[in-house]
Every structure is written in C-alpha cells, then in structure tokens.
Specification:
The complex is a heterodimer of chains A (103) and B (460). With 103 residues, chain A is mainly β. Helices cover 11% and strands 30% of the residues of chain A. Helix content of chain B is 41%, strand content 14%. Chain B is built from 18 helices and 13 strands. The radius of gyration of chain B is 27 Å and the shape is globular. The two termini of chain B are 45 Å apart. The chains are: A mainly beta (103), B alpha/beta (460). The A-B interface holds A 12-14, 52-53, 56, 64-68, 70, 73-75, 77-78, 95, 97-103 and B 89, 91-94, 179-183, 186, 203-207, 209-211, 226-232, 234-239, 242, 244, 249, 275, 277, 279, 286-292, 322, 376, 379-380.
C-alpha cells in the first residue's frame, strides 16, 4: 500500500486555460495499492482537475503532442524509468507546458 | 481678441503643414520601398563575408562599450562583423532581435517575411512604423536597420520561406533565428538547419508567456527530437486569437539576440538542451532541462528519414501563416451573410441576435441589440445562461406567428465560434433543453459586419 503523496502540479503555455486558468495546484494523491506513476496521475488529473475539452490535453493514455512534461524541472525522458512509468515521490513537482508558436 | 485669433490661425496652419508633411513622408517611404522591391525581386545571391583583420577607428568608437568586455573584445567583435544571421519572421520577435544584431555590428542580416505591415502589428513589431503600413515587412525592417547601422548588410526576402527555397537560403547564413508564428514553418526551419548544419535559435510568445531554446547546436537536440509529432491544429492558438503583449515578444526577441550574438562571437549559447520559460504576469523565469538528441530522430538521428524538405503544411495539417482559420462546421443553409442579416434587421423581423464572444472582446465593441452569452458558458451548459437565453426567446415569441420558431442568429468575431455555438444550440433543442428554434450563424462575424456593412464599427 503506497502512502498518500503531496505533489505540485503546474500548467503553463496556455494549458492552464483547460484548468480554469489556474496554473499551480498543490494536490494530495490518496494512498492506493499501486505506486503513483505519471500514467495514473494523468487519469487522476482528468477526473479531478481538468475542467473542459480533455482532448486538448490527453491523447490515449498520454498527453497530446505539443505538451512537454517536466518532472522537477527536467524533461520526463531524462529520468530512469521515465515518461508514463515514472514513479512519483512525495513533494515532486510536475509541470505540463504547452508549447507556444506565436511570434 | 487679436492674440486669440492669431493663436487659432497659427494652430490651423501648423495642423495643415503637419498633414502635408505626413503625406509627403508616406509618399517617400512608399517610393523608397518600390525602388528596393524592383531591385530585389529575385532571391538575392550573397557571397560569404570576407574575413576581417582589424577594426577601423570609427568602429572602435562605435562599439567601444562592448569591446572592453573581456569575454567579447576585439576578437569577438571581428567575428560578429563577419557573421551572417538569417531572421525568419520580421514580427514581434524578429524586430527586436534584428535591431540588437544590427546595433551590435553583425555583418549581414537576412530578413524573411511574406507579410505586410498592419496597424495591429505596431504595438510589438517595433521596427515598422505608421508610414509603412501596407508595405512588405522584410523591406520595412531592412530600411529601419539601415538607418540604425549603415555598415550592416541587410538582405530582405519579401516572400514565404518554402520547402523549395529554405535549404538554399539557410546554407548562405551562419546562424538562423526562428521568429516565425506557425507550426509548419517551425518544422521547415528546423529541418533546413539540420540538413545545412546550422544552429537554430528559436523563440515563441503568446499572451503573457514566452519560450526560448537553441536547437541543433554542438550535438544538442533539434526541434524534432523534442517534438516528433506536430500538435493537433485545433490546439494551436495564434496572437490574433490569444492576444500578446508587445513587451513579452520584445523580451524574448532580445534573449534570442543574446543567444545569436554569443554563438556568432564564439562564446557559445546558454540554452542548448534547455528551455527558458518566461511568465510575464508572475515575473518568473524558469529554465528546464530538455531531453538529449534522440538517436531515432527523423531529422538529426542516426538514420534520418528527413533527407530533403517536405510538405510541412500537410505534415502539420495547418497553413504556414498565423492567419485565423475558417471552420466549416455548418451547411450553407444554416448560415446567413452579413448582408442578409442587415436586410432582416432593417425589415424589423422579430429575432434574437446572440453574441458568443468572450467578455473581453465584447468590451471592445458590440452590436447594442445583441444578447451576450460567451461560447464557453454554452459549452459548459451553464444553467443561468440557458435561463437568460430562454427568457430572451420567450420575449420575442410575440413577434412571430403562432407556432413558428423564433429565429436565432449567432455572431462572433470571425464566424468560427458562432458555428460551434449553433451546433450546441441545435443539440440543446434536440435534448429539449430549449424550445424549438431555427438557429443560423452570421458568416464572417462582426469583422465582416465592419468590412461590408458599417465602416464605423471597430476592427480588432
């Protein structure tokens, strides 16, 4: 049984507009059998934080192309056991950045 | 009294002369541009800049404040003087970027932009001015840079960067700056830089946020390593829809100039393999670590599949401009033109006009007889908004024949959101949340109204 986790979930680059314009969310993930990874964090976000048009954020079981996922300020690809399989630690910060194209 | 008359007469005369002067300035600017355009219709061929052995007395005086920086010094300045930089996009990023490159003494600056100067560009595209509205941005920017530093060679390309021209063009420059405003161009510039082996300094901005990074530098990742798949077209917001504050593009353009100058002077960039995020509302800069170069990257990987430039508009499913897209969600019989709506309005037919723009746009301008309910609230099925809508429809019931439906016309800025709103109202009617309605939208929205019906109505 994994203990509850306190993590900071942040959205930027316009992704926050799908979350009522709120960028920073301090969330508590309840204790559960399985360890918390990004795959089930996304499910949790979709159910608990996402306010509108999930297709602009989620595609399949991952984020849509054009959104970067940063865990403690590093691209989720840089981590061992990274991307969807990364296991969240207490006090982690997870940032979802929508890339901008304007100029 | 006489003194007052004289003041009045002088004021009138000053105003007249000012008007004359401004018209002369406009004619001069237009004539200058015409002269340049005829000279540079073709893709200008440029030869490599010759190496430079020493700085002149004038150059030493001019660049003295940066020459005394030990990191730069005479050596760095000489490198800048023989460096060439291609600026893709002479807009909110490209203007401040090119301005600082020219001011710092970069040898040659290529300026690519297919677009013309519009008044709504001026709050952020600071090289252009009122007198040059309607002229090509590439020429306007080149003219401004020449006034700033006549020693810098400015090469305007008043055309779109295309898969046919990009590689040839990129090969003629040492460093490339992506200051474009759309996804297909960003992939095109990246692939051209990878194929030509040029570093790419890339920035973007929207609303109060900006991002900058350096691609394909010294073994670092390229744009495709980080974004192997383009975003779905409907998730991309342009500056016209999302808004942008000029100083935010200004900050990013200046940071881009800094990275270009450091690369050109041999100091090396700071943001290769990392991405700087700027949040202007909170005053935060945050630097994040990006992934490494991907061995299986389609462009810079070990077995690249991008071996020449492709059709990037097809790849991204969107056009290589930042112009607003026109959606086609409705059939022609579900839509009316602004002319048809105007006739209906003049005939006094009972109807409801529903404006679905966000509040911030309604504050800019509105048709006084319209009911305002933002699209977002309709999408949410907001109970209070639906109540408001039902009441407005009921009020108009008296004006229509017994049993007939109240005609509802939906309007927005350009005629995209209005189509989405019609779809929502149709489904609400089908679900019997609303009484039966005939719903149509107004093609081209309020901007078509301003262009075709009422020229006093603001355009934004």
């Amino acid at each position: 049984m994994a203990a509850p986790l306190s993590v900071e979930v942040e959205f930027g680059g316009g992704a926050e507009l799908l979350f009522n314009g709120v960028k920073k969310h301090q969330v508590t993930l309840p204790g559960q059998e399985e360890p918390w990874d990004i795959r089930n964090l996304l499910v949790w976000i979709k159910k608990n934080l996402l306010k509108e048009r999930p297709e602009l954020f989620i595609q399949g079981d991952s984020v849509r192309p054009g959104i970067l996922v940063l865990i403690n300020d590093a691209d989720w690809e840089l981590l061992d056991q990274g991307e969807l399989d990364y296991q969240l630690q207490d006090q982690d910060s997870v940032l979802f950045i929508s890339t901008l194209h304007g100029g | 009294m006489a003194a007052r008359d004289e003041v009045l007469a002088l004021r009138t005369e000053v105003a007249q002369r000012e008007e004359e002067l401004s018209s002369l300035k406009q004619r001069l600017a237009a004539a200058l541009l015409e002269k340049q355009e005829s000279e540079s219709e073709r893709l200008v061929l440029v030869s490599p800049l010759p190496p430079k052995a020493a700085l002149s007395r004038d150059e030493i005086l001019r660049y003295s404040r940066q020459l005394v920086l030990p990191e730069l010094g005479v050596h760095g300045q000489l490198r800048l003087a023989t460096a060439s930089v291609l600026v893709v996009g002479c807009g909110g990023l490209g203007c401040p970027l090119a301005q600082y490159l020219a001011a710092a003494g970069v040898g040659r600056i290529g300026l690519v932009d297919y677009d013309v100067v519009e008044m709504s560009n001026l709050p952020r595209q600071v090289l252009h001015d009122e007198a040059l509205a309607g002229q090509a941005k590439a020429f306007s920017a080149a003219a401004a840079l020449r006034r700033l530093n006549s020693a810098v060679e400015c090469v305007p390309y008043a055309q779109a960067l295309t898969p046919a021209t990009a590689l040839d063009l990129v090969r003629r420059y040492d460093v490339v700056a992506d200051c474009s405003d759309n996804v297909p161009t960003r992939y095109l510039v990246n692939d051209a830089c990878v194929l030509a082996g040029r570093p790419l300094v890339s920035a973007s901005a929207l609303r109060f946020e900006g991002q900058i990074t350096v691609y394909h530098y010294d073994g670092g990742p390229c744009y495709r390593c980080v974004f192997p798949q383009p975003p779905p077209a409907e998730t991309v917001t342009n500056c016209a829809d999302g808004g942008v504050l000029g100083v935010v593009t200004g900050v990013l353009g200046c940071l881009q100039a800094l990275e270009v100058l450091k690369i050109a002077a041999g100091l090396g960039p700071s943001y290769s393999g990392s991405l700087l995020l700027f949040d202007a509302l909170r005053g935060h800069f945050r630097c994040i670590r990006l992934r490494k170069r991907r061995p299986n990257c389609a462009a810079c990987g070990e077995r690249p599949t991008v071996t020449d430039l492709q059709d990037y508009e097809a790849f991204c499913g969107s056009s290589a401009t930042d112009k607003c897209r026109s959606l086609q969600l409705l059939s022609p019989k579900e839509r009316v033109s602004v002319t048809e709506y105007k006739q209906l309005l003049d005939s006094g037919t009972s109807h409801l006009l529903l404006d679905v723009r966000p509040q911030v746009e309604v504050d800019i301008c509105r048709l006084p007889h319209a009911l305002h309910i933002p699209l977002k609230r309709l999408e949410r099925g907001d109970a209070e908004s639906l109540k408001l809508l039902r009441e407005a429809v009921r009020e108009r019931k008296q004006g229509v024949q017994e049993g007939a439906a109240v005609p509802v016309y939906v309007i927005c800025k350009l005629g995209n959101d209005s189509q989405k709103a019609v779809k929502i109202l149709q489904s609400l009617t089908a679900a019997q949340e609303l009484d039966s309605l005939t719903v149509q939208d107004v093609v081209g929205g309020l901007m078509a109204w301003a262009a075709k019906i009422d020229d006093t109505f603001p355009q934004y």
